[in-house]
Design a protein that fits this description.
This protein is α+β, with helices and mostly antiparallel strands. It contains six helices and 14 strands. The model has no long low-confidence stretch (mean pLDDT about 90).
């Protein structure tokens, strides 16, 4: 599938900001089943972008801008060709052994309820780790409800699980916490999803988890949809939790009453639509 992604992030300030510095994890990398045909980041303010690689192997850009401004925005436009690999990720840049992804974080720390849920959900699995994880993602998909506004960016896995609802970030954190209680390395993935209902404008990107399964390697699990990723998914960044894979993180000097607006469009390219 050929997928086009357009991502706009805009900041406005009641009182002018003097400078901004941000870490952008907005650029996908090639791996088996994913080929980046083109990708571009543009700024509307006289800023500087410096590309590098972070500890997890993600492509990052360090953005810095100086000068008084009440509005600041950046846009991303790109095209990615994908193939369905049944959620299996091979050929990706890896800097750490899988065991690192057993490490708990503030956002993914499990409580007794999550540990009990993980054991119960996987109790009937008879065909190894892959079967256990498929049962876990199915049970979690049925147990929690996707609901925008039910949580915020600081909500941790235990809080979201207790509420029984949240956004993709929350369901992913719960899945990660549950998998780690079973002794399975698991990590957070940020990216994009071309929706089968053809809703192309979206309020944000998507998120899912990857778990490491013996000789099979890393395999994706999307608790929001209860499936493993298909060719409708574009994988961008990984981390121990949301904070390690967040599309945009940063700070500014000065400025007041900051307002953030994000608009994401994920669609098939014109060529793909003609072929379909």
């Amino acid at each position: 599938m050929r997928i086009r992604i357009h991502h706009e992030t805009a900041y406005t300030y009641e009182r002018p900001a003097q400078s901004v510095i941000q870490i952008l994890r907005l650029t996908p990398r090639d791996h088996d089943g994913q080929y980046v045909r083109r990708w571009r980041i543009d700024l509307d303010h006289g800023g500087i972008l410096r590309a590098r690689e972070d500890a997890f192997g993600n492509v990052i850009h360090v953005l810095s801008a100086v000068g008084e401004f009440t509005h600041f925005s950046l846009s991303v436009d790109g095209e990615v060709e994908t193939q369905d690999t049944a959620g299996i990720v091979r050929g990706a840049t890896e800097h750490f052994p899988p065991a690192l992804y057993l490490r708990e974080t503030v956002l993914t720390r499990p409580n007794a309820a999550i540990a009990d849920f993980a054991r119960t959900a996987t109790a009937k699995a008879k065909n190894g780790t892959l079967d256990r994880l498929h049962k876990l993602v199915t049970e979690l998909h049925e147990h929690m409800t996707f609901e925008v506004g039910a949580t915020d960016s600081g909500t941790n896995a235990a809080e979201a699980f207790e509420r029984g609802r949240g956004v993709c970030q929350d369901l992913t954190h719960v899945f990660i916490a549950a998998a780690r209680t079973l002794g399975i390395p698991c990590r957070y993935v940020s990216g994009h999803l071309f929706r089968s209902d053809a809703v192309t404008p979206q309020e944000a990107g998507h998120a899912w988890a990857e778990a490491h399964i013996g000789d099979l390697g890393w395999v994706g699990f999307d608790a929001v949809n209860g499936i493993s990723p298909t060719d409708a998914y574009v994988r961008v960044a990984v981390g121990l939790d949301y904070l390690g894979a967040a599309p945009v993180r940063g700070a500014q000097v000065g400025g007041s009453d900051e307002k953030l607006a994000v608009a994401v469009t994920v669609d098939q390219t014109a060529q793909q639509q003609q072929q379909s």
